[in-house]
């Protein structure tokens, strides 16, 4: 499989705190990969460092052949990486449709509004509602939908199911499966192990700022003991 994203020896710091200690990982084109790990091991920091939000970093990040270490934050989307942060970043005073139209289209191949509303019928119903009026699930869907218009090749999602009701979690799973069918490459940080096991092709287990294990979804049954002891799942 051709690696779309390749990360080698990635180190990152928040001030004096050394958080990532040589992260090695890749995500193949069209693959869905999930990073698992306890609280505080560096999962979010990995996504924030790949996107360039964390600039105190060292190592190698290449994406579709581009050296992402040289790319400023505001150009990350132009290179094809879309980030959906845990806090979602919805503009509360803007309507759903205004939020959707805000991020610039950076490449061809993104979804148009009709396609987005077909994928998220509830956003169509709520298209005139302000961000503040949305439920947590609707906000999460809007945060994902917004990135799909831009034409990015890869989605980085930070705990998209956190705090959401099971029926909404299921809906987000269906959306991610449809995106995968369309060829989207997805890197997901997720605490909800059941959810992740239904959509991921491959897993990384992270501990102390490094990837300690990597395995395909088919090996899940043999890996359950390790996951139980490390994650308590
Ligand atoms: N802005 C920041 N400044 C300083 N330290 C931070 C900052 N953000 C996170 N950290 C610290 O970096 C470490 C890794 O945090 P990170 O958010 O990447 O962990 P995580 O694996 O995503 O866990 P969680 O699920 O709790 O977010 C933690 O010790 C955290 O306290």
Automatic annotation (TrEMBL):
ABC transporter domain location: 5-233
UniProt entry keywords in alphabetical sequence: Amino-acid transport, ATP-binding, Nucleotide-binding, Transport
Coiled-coil parts of chain: none
Which GO biological-process labels does this protein carry?
L-amino acid transport
MF (Gene Ontology): ATP binding; ATP hydrolysis activity; branched-chain amino acid transmembrane transporter activity
Q: Which InterPro entries match?
A: AAA+_ATPase (IPR003593), ABC_transporter-like_ATP-bd (IPR003439), ABC_transporter-like_CS (IPR017871), BCAA_Transport_ATP-bd_LivF (IPR052156), P-loop_NTPase (IPR027417)
Pfam families (UniProt xref): ABC_tran
Specify whether Transferase is a keyword of the entry.
no
PANTHER family recorded for this chain?
Answer: HIGH-AFFINITY BRANCHED-CHAIN AMINO ACID TRANSPORT ATP-BINDING PROTEIN LIVF
State the similarity comment: Belongs to the ABC transporter superfamily.
Q: What is this protein called?
A: Amino acid/amide ABC transporter ATP-binding protein 2 (HAAT family)
Originating species = Rhizobium azibense
